[in-house]
Amino acid sequence: MKIAKNTVVTVEYSLSDTLGNLIEQGQEPMVYLHGGYENTLPKIEEALEGKDVGFNETIQVEPEDAFGEYDAELVKMEDRSRLPSPIEVGMQFEGTPDDDEDGDSLIFTVTEIAEDKVVLDGNHPLAGIALRFTLNVTDVREATKEEIAHGHVHGAHGHHDDDEDEDGEYRSYPLH
């Protein structure tokens, strides 16, 4: 079966930068609904369109087609007293940038802690980096009507219902 709109694709993958430094070796295969449902990067879908089981290739995805360019304006310095204690580098908070009139929230990561200040970065950790994905297609099947209606895969490595995305992992935090 060829990969096309409304097929469920299983891909073993690894992710590295353009120098070959491994960023992530997928412990579990990526299983996604193909066809513009935003379950993976569009450039990955483009590379896999029309392929079938056994297809194996490494593709390069530029920052603008992956996680965007690095935006220095998304780096904020906040008073340490405004954040919960204890605080550690790597902690994440959901917040709204100062200049976002629409109120769209981002995930900010603590990147540095000084005596009374904390640096928060709203960029995706892979922003500004060209990425190489090594992709190996291991399965392709027709999507169920329910998967198509919900826009994502159900079952193993997929979602069972829309509420599972609400894991409360991030704390809400208004940025000033």
From TrEMBL:
<dbReference type="InterPro" id="IPR046357">
    <property type="entry name" value="PPIase_dom_sf"/>
</dbReference>
<dbReference type="InterPro" id="IPR001179">
    <property type="entry name" value="PPIase_FKBP_dom"/>
</dbReference>
<protein>
    <recommendedName>
        <fullName>peptidylprolyl isomerase</fullName>
        <ecNumber>5.2.1.8</ecNumber>
    </recommendedName>
</protein>
<keyword id="KW-0697">Rotamase</keyword>
<feature type="region of interest" description="Disordered">
    <location>
        <begin position="149"/>
        <end position="176"/>
    </location>
</feature>
<comment type="function">
    <text>Also involved in hydrogenase metallocenter assembly, probably by participating in the nickel insertion step. This function in hydrogenase biosynthesis requires chaperone activity and the presence of the metal-binding domain, but not PPIase activity.</text>
</comment>
<comment type="similarity">
    <text>Belongs to the FKBP-type PPIase family.</text>
</comment>
<keyword id="KW-0143">Chaperone</keyword>
<keyword id="KW-0963">Cytoplasm</keyword>
<dbReference type="GO" id="GO:0016853">
    <property type="term" value="F:isomerase activity"/>
</dbReference>
<keyword id="KW-0413">Isomerase</keyword>
<feature type="domain" description="PPIase FKBP-type">
    <location>
        <begin position="6"/>
        <end position="84"/>
    </location>
</feature>
